[in-house]
Task: structure prediction
Amino acid sequence: MLDLKFIRENAEALKEAVKVKGEGLDVDALLALDIELTRLKTEAQELQTERNSHSKKIPKASNEERPKLIEEGKAIGVKLDALKPSLAAKEDELLQMMYLVPSIPSPHAPIGKSEEENIEVKLYGEKPDFSFKPLDHVEILEKNQWAEFEKIAKVAGSRSYSLRNDMVLLEMALHRLALVKLQEKGFTLVSTPSFSREEALIGTGHFPQGKDQVYHLPEDDLYLSGTAEVQLNSLHGGDMFTEDQLPILYAGYSPCFRREAGSYGRDVRGLIRVHQFMKVEQYIICKNDPAESMKWHKALLETSEEIVQELELPYRIVECCTGDMGTGKVRMYDIECWVPSEEKYRETHSCSELHDWQSRRTNTRYRDKDGKAQYVFTLNNTAIATPRIMVSFLECHQREDGSLYIPEKLRPFMNGAESLKG
Result:
């Protein structure tokens, strides 16, 4: 969501953002609705003013004049009451359109329609050169009896998985590594529930467009969220901070759920595109300053890089083009880790800055040094998400004897183990 005054004064910039992001918003229709709503509000205010003025005349009127004045007052009230439903409907219609307004992308963001037009900005690490025929991650898991897919699918449905023995410990170790690193960097560790109300998903921008990706519990009117960002973003909805209280750094740890609607038949093998997963999410609330936001965006990306480097995985960083960054993003980078069996990099981390696009939805503000109320800026990035990163981890660290190499930085969280074997 953007400031309506900004939209009125920068309609062409918004139209360009709609175009380069591939959004379906009709900016002219939004502006026309804004004009109509302003007219209705003015009319309602004039009627209210007239009724108030009329009411003041009644006590001073003579007995002969009073009945007529009362009837005239009632007529004004009828007109005002008749206007209210139309006014409320137009306000809701405008609000729903405002939810679809994209952020203005950074002038540095590449223009493009899809992920194929993302720009590689960094390549790190050597791809493994195996002297044997490597296995893919499913084969490694099944050979070592580290996971079960078929039977659990009969119980829980497709795209389910069940890790076993050392893989359960490995998954926990990956999250521990990330959480310890973030705590050392000053992040507050937060475990969040997966449940969220609809307004929380509207607050992050996952709704209204992304409803097909979210599991709904209709009897409770709750949703299962796909990231702790949902809860962390709405945690301070309606709050007014002081500038001295910012920035706020959260590391949200939670189970996550995604329907992955529309991806049937592709990228569904093993641990890829599962419906339930665990994630540590980096989330930052900072002051309303593009330079400050850029600083934290860089810091978030560097932290995730440190984690991937400590896991000794080859990766690349791509800057996402306008058509791939999402409605609310101002600028976005992905980290993609190497998957040998597919001979491709797969996205494991997504680092975004959103300026005040989310905080306007949640009404989260602070008072600056001059006492002026400002909407905060928000940013987020994955710290670790499992089991997705385990695809690259298993395939890159497999050995010819069937064992799995454990990187040095991860060993303290694996009881010092240098390798694993089923």
Observations:
- Residues 4-98 form a domain with the Helix Hairpins fold (CATH 1.10.287.40).
- The mean pLDDT is 94.
